[in-house]
Amino acid sequence: MLDVSMEDALVRLIEYRTSMKMSQEALAELVGISRRQYSYMENGENVLSYRVLSGLYSHEWDIDYIITGNHFLQQENMLKKLLASCEENKRKKLYLLLLTGFIEMWEWNFEDQMERCLCSELRAMVVLLLNRADFNEKLLYIRQINGISQQELAHILLIGRTKCGKCEKGVQQLDAELMLCLYKMGYSLPSFYIDDYAGISEIESLLNLYPEKKRKYYQYVGSVLKNIIGDEENLKLLQKSGVV
User: Fold this and answer.
1) pLDDT tens digit string along 134-178?
2) How confident is the model over 95-137, as pLDDT tens digits?
3) DSSP state of 198
4) Longest CA pairwise span in the chain (Å)
5) Which residues of 138-173 are buried (b: 16+ CB within 10 A; e: fewer)?
6) Alpha helix positions (H), the chain
7) Cα(192)–Cα(63) distance, rounded to whole angstroms?
8) Three-class SS of residue 202?
9) The three-state (H, E, C) secondary structure of 17-66, written as one string
């Protein structure tokens, strides 16, 4: 298992905060908690909560880096633009097709932890979308796609089955320690449980490393927009971007 720890994550959180020239008080206000609450989390006395991570992510902080120590993104994302501008009644279908198209065309390197996590995430989201399940149930589908029981997952996360079940149903949110554990197992990146379009930023990041694969994938996206989704406006946006 990877040699990454919450102690290291908290060091990165402090470094990230200071690089942004923010005090504990300013950051606490940003994420909607008291300075005292935030101080306890940063000092490791309380767990780094989903609420704080979600607040940081909404302000474009790289929580994957903070928790795992690895940078996987970030830059302007054409795929997210397409999803955001797609008609609401067509958005989930487009999202599903973006995921399935990438899964089929990508040559996966499971020695790379990010790719292992991403493959697990995309497969889980495909099943979730096909089942029309709630996005809060992402952990349930991560477990199922990786072929483990709830008892096994609870053991991996060092929590009881009752809490595990609540997390699977979205009744209780994952904290940073649980997200880190799931990353170390190769199941998911921390941002997976927060991002509305889970996996899309990572897809874009990988494509940017391989121009020919990116061109091929965006040709597929153009075909989806034209022939399946029927979204002429997004097709024009894609063509105007110059990626196809």
Assistant:
1) 999 999 999 999 999 999 999 999 999 999 999 999 999 999 999
2) 999 999 999 999 999 999 999 999 999 999 999 999 999 999 9
3) T
4) 55
5) bbbbbbbbbebeeeebbebbebeeeebbebbebebb
6) 6-19, 24-31, 35-42, 50-58, 63-68, 78-85, 88-105, 113-130, 138-145, 150-157, 161-169, 176-184, 200-209, 211-224, 232-241
7) 10
8) helix
9) HHHCCCCHHHHHHHHCCCHHHHHHHHCCCCCCCHHHHHHHHHCCCCHHHH
Per-residue DSSP letter, 159: S
Task: For residues 27 and 34, give the distance between their C-alpha atoms in angstroms, rounded to a whole number.
Answer: 9
The pair of structure tokens assigned to 30 is 């940003």
- Enter the pTM of the model: 0.91
Token pair for 122: 């995309």
Question: Which residues, 6 or more positions from 53, have their beta carbon under 8 angstroms from its beta carbon?
Answer: 63, 67, 175, 176, 179, 190, 194
Tokens standing for residue 179: 């997200």
